[in-house]
Amino acid sequence: MKYIKPLISEIPWNYNWNYSAMSLLDRQSEGRQSGEQERYLQANNREFNSLFGYPNNSIKTSKYNALNFLPMNLFEQFQRLANAYFLILLFLQLIPQISSLAWYTTVIPLMVVLSITAVKDGIDDMKRHKNDNQVNNRSVLVLMNGRIVTDKWMNIQVGDIIKLENNQLVTADILLLSSSEPYSLTYIETAELDGETNLKVKQAISVTSDMEDNLKLLSAFDGEVRCESPNNRLDRFTGTLTYKGKNYILNHDRLIFRGCVIRNTDWCYGLVVFTGKWRKLHCSPMPSVTVGIDDNNHGPDTKLMQNGGKSAFKRTHIDHLMNVLVLWIFLFLCGMCFILAIGHYIWENKKGYYFRDFLPWKEYVSSSVVSSVLIFWSYFIILNTMVPISLYVSVEIIRLGNSFYINWDRKMFYELKNTPAQARTTTLNEELGQVKYVFSDKTGTLTRNIMTFSKCSINGKFYGDVYDKNRQKVEISEKTEKVDFSYNRLADPKFSFYDKTLVEAVKKGDRWVHLFFVSLSLCHTVIPEEKVEGELVYQAQSPDEGALVTAARNFGFVFRSRTSETIMIVEMGETRIYKLLAILDFNNVRKRMSVIVRTPENRVMLFCKGADTILCQLLHPSCRSLRDVTMEHLDDFASDGLRTLMVAYRELDNAFFQDWSRKHSEAFLSLEDRENKISIVYEEIEKDLMLLGATAIEDKLQDGVPETIITLSQAKIKIWVLTGDKQETAVNIAYACNIFDDEMDGMFIVEGEDNETVWQELRSAREKMKPQSLLESDPIDDYLTAKPRIPFKIPEEVPSGNYGLVINGYSLAHALEGNLELELLQTACMCKGVICCRMTPLQKAQVVELVKRYKKVVTLAIGDGANDVSMIKAAHIGVGISGQEGMQAMLNSDFAFSQFCYLQRLLFVHGRWSYNRMCKFLSYFFYKNFAFTLVHFWYAFYSGFSAQTVYDTWFITFYNLVYTSLPVLGLSLFDQDVNETWSLRFPELYEPGQHNLYFNKKEFVKCLVHGIFSSLVLFFIPMGTIHNSVRTDGKEISDYQSFSTIVQTSLLCVVTMQVWPVVGLPWRQPTGQ
């Protein structure tokens, strides 16, 4: 969060717009996605703004209406290969020359399948229509003709001025003009945009804030806004406001996005900049303004809609296998039709001419060759049931049912937060039974992400441990006496600390201790709320910040309030106001934040906190000895699994700061390469820092994490922890949750600073884990020699024991380059557990993609924060935990729950059952269709290859839809080969799914062979039984109808009885047992 002062952002900026606009457009690649290249609008002038063709504020997420539903839905459904195949088959059946079945044998099943899908799509779209209407018809206050009137959201237009009140949803993307708060601050909650529940602050520029709620001034306001085109960047907005002949820079701190909620602000006024959805524009009313639209690009305007895009559709391994098998079946069908066509040709030439006197050919049949071609297509129609029309619909029904089981599972319901488990997709259930690699975040996933200030180091002195009278360290427990903070009436009663020496140092007025806590109370972006006198509540962007500010509060340095220009601190009972000069924001690259303030004594001070790896490089040389002592303390903190930060300060010369402030303003006003210029200016002042100390924050493990890790390991699932924390903290958490243990044969740490060193460390680790590997064929060398266009699976190497691997983000950046990634992959996959620390979100996704690409196994990523979204999307299965870091991870996940320990139930119970059920369903489904269809093939040899069917046409129509559907659906929804207790007690039962043993190409061939055998029995036993047989009255019983009835009845009995003995999967000895 940034508070931009008038000194920086409100300097009138007179410039040649055309030149600057071109610079702006060169940077706005996102804008081209929406077609619009820049936006120009004027406040309170609908007539002028309408010339640009901007849309109103209505939204439309629905796909259909009453007129286009049927054609659009059918068009979408027939884009699926299976549906298109049966449509073509229907057209073939309408050709009398080749039709051997009644048209309804295909039409009825196809209509049932299409109808089920259409009903589902229609219901979903009706819900979208309902939601659209609810949103579009919400009320909002808008300024019209000098007075406030109530209007619907959908009628709001670009350039309107709207009034928003406390706890109200923001209607559109608006430029903040004024508010009820001092300095025109407005507090907002952005949970719907980024999942974060902490409050953020926006501020209007002074030229508009002076209007306050004066309707006369607001109605007369005719400012003109030129800005970037609509894009999805939540952290950036570039534009200018022209008012009374002067130009003012606009940035994202002035813009409030649709979907935010106004908090702690009685009212605010905003100018609508982006609305609803973009629509085509045919002309531009101003030649100097480029608002042309690319007809091929369509998209929404508001940030909320821009960020509402769907993730890439994920398909399971069984989906891909089914597509291959359906192709095999189609080729097998064509092969059978060809064989029968050849048979017909031979029969016609040898025997057919005897029948032509009383069964003459039709006029269009000129020869046996033509007749054979027609017979080919006739049999293509008869044997079409080899390609199952109801397969995909049945699979979706089964997946939907198994998804409900996850949603209904009370044992995955977290009562403390009233949060159930959610299957946010219905397409990946069986994939849960095949997971081989789990990639987990640490903070908030393995740990609770409820931070408590535990220890600290100040000026080289260690605080936080408790000692008895004999100076022996005491283990802290619930019985340990807590520090008494009753002397501080503003202390947080929930805060606990045990080392009394720190309180004594504060009371004695230790200069360094005071400066340390002043730094913690100033260097943050926390927003305080004080609804009742003395009852402070801090709204922090991260739990770490909240814990540090709360700690400073309890030790007597209470952060009370802030404005855009000041921060008020109560230091040991004395109120002190610091003038806020600048905030240098934290980001994942800088890994630090700083504030620059002017003290009541008129000293300019910079306070900085951040990762020790970064701040160590920024310290003044005179801090070398203090740095070494502090680093020892940091190592001790990390060995206890604590999260650490380093704290430093710098006193600035006033003249130096004024010069830096000028450079900062210039960098901030720059339109070209602004971020890089600001970064350079930040680095100029964040140097020669004086070290104050370090903080240690405890983040306890969630309940059941160690036990869950052990259970996953017993199922041969490998766990990799991908975290941004420092190495020592991550390693100790790994030991605490049993990813690493004391019985391991060794642990390798990769921390090289160049490619060569990283390669040597990885190769050395491989040699120690499997010394003979270099004497054998190296799979990496084999792969590089082959140079395949499509990555193939690199085989596993079995290590000589249990090992662990630790690699930091800097070394990982080298390891992910070129051929080094294969060395990393093979080394890491040989280890029992892997810890990757100091990682960026992009690196997390790269590691997941690496394993997916070369190991060809099912991967699962689990996390709770926005920085985990990339790996959640990259993995085959993404699991989001609804924790302290907002809902972003959950909103981008496939499955969601509140505790890591629920993962074992998701995999070993629901995942394993879903996989087994799907495998049994597919085996039985293919088998019953083979047994049903191949009877026609054998009958052809006894019917002169005349394309005569064995079964009644209505039996053919309802065989899959009615007669054989219930047994297999019942099996696929309710079968449990073992109960949930045994599934959890014996994790080894999970292993067959990892190796895809229950349904694969080999199992499919078995189904085919079994179907062939059953069809032979079903055809030849009735044939042999009734051939030349007579009834008691002497009449023959070998008529067609009797034979057909016997075969049909026998088929239903056989395939139904085969549900359990044929498809029931035998228990297989797990690998490695």
What would your notes on this structure say?
The protein has 1073 residues and is an alpha+beta fold. The protein has 37 helices and 35 strands. Helix 5 crosses helix 7 and helix 24 packs parallel to helix 27. The radius of gyration is 36 Å and the shape is globular. The chain starts with 5 loop residues before the first helix and ends in a 16-residue tail after the last helix. The N terminus and C terminus are likely disordered.
Which descriptor suits the 3D outline?
globular
Helicity range: 40-55%
Low-confidence stretches: 1-34, 278-298, 1062-1073
Provide the spatial order of strands within the biggest beta sheet: 14-35-34-33-15-29-32-31-30
Largest sheet: 9 strands, mixed
| Fold-level CATH name of the largest domain | Calcium-transporting ATPase, cytoplasmic domain N
Attribute tags:
single chain, disordered N terminus, 37 helices, about 20% strand, 5 domains, disordered C terminus, alpha+beta, 9-stranded mixed beta sheet, about 1050 residues
Task: Summarize the helices and strands and which ones pair or pack.
Blueprint: H1 6-9, H2 17-27, H3 29-33, E1 39-42, H4 46-50, H5 69-77, H6 81-93, H7 104-136, E2 139-144, E3 147-152, E4 161-165, E5 173-179, E6 185-189, H8 191-194, E7 199-203, H9 206-209, H10 215-220, E8 224-227, E9 239-243, E10 246-250, E11 255-256, E12 261-263, E13 267-274, H11 303-306, H12 317-350, H13 368-382, H14 391-408, E14 422-423, E15 435-440, E16 452-458, E17 461-463, E18 466-467, E19 473-474, H15 500-508, H16 511-522, E20 527-532, E21 535-539, H17 543-554, E22 557-562, E23 566-571, E24 574-584, E25 592-598, E26 604-610, H18 612-615, H19 624-639, E27 643-652, H20 654-669, H21 674-685, E28 690-698, H22 705-714, E29 718-722, H23 727-736, E30 746-750, H24 755-769, H25 779-786, E31 803-808, H26 809-815, H27 820-829, E32 833-837, H28 841-855, E33 858-863, H29 869-874, E34 877-881, H30 888-891, E35 895-897, H31 902-940, H32 953-963, H33 965-974, H34 980-985, H35 991-994, H36 1001-1026, H37 1040-1057
Parallel strand pairs: 15-29, 15-33, 29-32, 30-31, 31-32, 33-34, 34-35
Antiparallel strand pairs: 1-8, 2-3, 2-4, 4-13, 5-11, 5-13, 6-7, 6-12, 8-9, 9-10, 14-35, 16-17, 16-28, 18-19, 20-21, 22-23, 23-24, 24-25, 25-26, 26-27, 27-28
